[in-house]
Amino acid sequence: MAEYLRINPAFPPVYHAPLPQRLPVSALVFFATFLLLLSRTIYLDANEILSTRVDLMGFVVMGIAMLPRLISSDVIMRVKTIGVTLIAVFLFYLLIALIAADREILPVLMSRHGLVPWLLVGFMAAVATEDITAYVANSRNPLALSLGLIGPPMVLLIPAYAIRDASEGIVETISYQQVAGSATILMVGVVLIMQSLWKTSVQARATGLAVISATIYISTSMVLTYLIAKLQSTSIVLVFLALSCSIGFLVLRHVSIVSLFGLVLTVAVLGFAFVPELLTDLLETTRFSALTEGDWMISSVRARLSILELFWDQWASSPFTGDYVVEERIGGHGNYVHSLPLSLLTHLGVFGFAIFAWAFYFVSRSTNGSFRPSLLTLIVFAISTVSTFFSWTPVWFMLGASALFSSEKSPA
Predict the structure, then answer these.
(1) Who is most buried in 4, 68, 95, 166, counting CB within 10 A?
(2) CA 266 → CA 238, 323, 341, distances in Å?
(3) Contact 136, 24 (CB under 8 A)
(4) What is the mean pLDDT of the chain?
(5) Among candidates 334, 156, 345, 167, which has minimal Cα distance to 239?
(6) Helix (H, G, I), strand (E, B) or coil at 79
(7) Which class for 269: exposed (0-12), middle (13-18), buried (19 or more C-beta within 10 A)?
(8) What is the 8-class DSSP label of residue 12?
(9) How far apart are CA 177 and CA 392, in angstroms?
(10) Residue 195 and residue 193: Cα distance in Å, rounded?
(11) Cα 193 from Cα 198, distance rounded (Å)
């Protein structure tokens, strides 16, 4: 510790957790509940069913399951304290803004789509992913590795099955935005586990399991994306493409050229077999139908660009402290800017934007103090920058997942 402080006194020492040898039951319970909660949320929103307090129990179960790990010394000493403190300051600032605007607090901060629950779930997901990865890497059990790599991408079929009937209705509703957000969190969570196992397991790369899991992920996520796109969501397609590219990038980094060729060939075969029919259906029944008419500006993009013209007027209304209901006075209800940084400026002003930016900077720093956000974090924030409001739940999930310094893991 003394040597660490001598070399790098500007940053506190990072405690590296011992790798667990026992089956991480709490992490398995967490991810099982995580899957059920998101699948249930996707089902409720896709079918426009009102939720009850019972639907919030998933958050309680996840918290109880992970509590012993969250209060353990190895986790507490790896929390990015400055970043977490700034996030807390931002949430308090948002609370004041909601009160000043006479808006309900619970729907924004503590509901099924609230910022705080998904911030905490993201943090717990990071801890649970480490525990599962450490167990698989140290057990050297081929069955555990196979289940760890093939199981997560397969679970995407569960929410897809849950909304199969809703997607057939092809009815444009406001709730598709929540459906897409929940699906994004689930898809990101799956990739989080997959990439962690790839990085720590030589066996996964040598046996081609990484390629198999990547192929399954692209296939199952394509099915889920197709069904949500039928609900008139366009952002989910962008999420699918970005995450699929990240999978390809990770495969390129962690497997052999032969395995990469196998992935490309498999995806190409699946593409020729299934994509044309799915693509034709999307082009005929969704907002993407404008593309078949020679109009490269689909309706959702056109609407976002028209709202973007209101940005300067909305921001000028209260440039420093923001106005949380500014769109109701300038532009009309629902005409808020669909952009993470711009919506921060219009609704929380320069002060709110600055606090959020500093929080993001500090939770994205590595152990040596450099600014190194993960690829998944960059993907989520990039998509949010061009298409969503700052309260988009995947943003807060990734903020929570980034708030923990990683522990050392010995490659298997």
Answers:
(1) 166
(2) 22, 51, 39
(3) no
(4) 82
(5) 156
(6) strand
(7) exposed
(8) P
(9) 9
(10) 6
(11) 9
- The full length of the chain comes to 412
Residue found by looking up tokens 């974090």 in the block: 377
48, 178 Cβ separation under 8 angstroms? no
Q: Which long-range contacts (CB under 8 A, 24 or more apart) does 312-319 make?
A: 314/346, 315/342, 315/345, 315/346, 317/346, 318/349, 319/345, 319/349, 319/350
Task: Please state, in angstroms and rounded to a whole number, the distance separating the CA atoms of residues 117 and 125.
Answer: 12
State phi, psi for 404 to the nearest 5 degrees.
-130, 125
pTM, two decimals, is 0.88
Structure token digits, residue 95: 């609370």
Looking at residue 122, its amino acid is G
Give domain limits for the chain.
19-78+112-296+364-401
Measuring CA to CA, which residue among 29, 299, 379, 45 is closest to residue 181? 45
Indicate if the pLDDT at residue 44 is higher than 80. yes
Token pair of 405 as six digits? 């310094």
Grouping H, G, I as helix, E, B as strand and the rest as coil, residue 295 is: coil
Q: Which residue has the tokens 């509901």?
A: 111
Q: Which of 44, 124, 43, 46 is nearest to 396 (CA)?
A: 124
pLDDT in tens, 362-410: 999 887 778 888 889 999 999 999 889 999 999 999 999 999 987 654 3
- pLDDT tens digits, one per residue of 309-342: 889 999 999 999 999 999 988 888 778 899 999 9
Determine the angle formed by the axes of helices 176-200 and 115-139, rounding to 10 degrees. 30
- HSE-up of 113 (CA within 13 Å, CB side)? 23
| Torsion angle of C-alpha atoms 5, 9, 12, 16, degrees rounded to 10 | -40
**Mean pLDDT computed over 131-140:** 82
CA distances from 54 to 18, 31, 61, 139 (A): 37, 18, 11, 37
C-alpha to C-alpha distance for 1 and 16, rounded to whole angstroms: 12
Q: Can you name the residues that pair with 404 across neighbouring β-strands?
A: 79
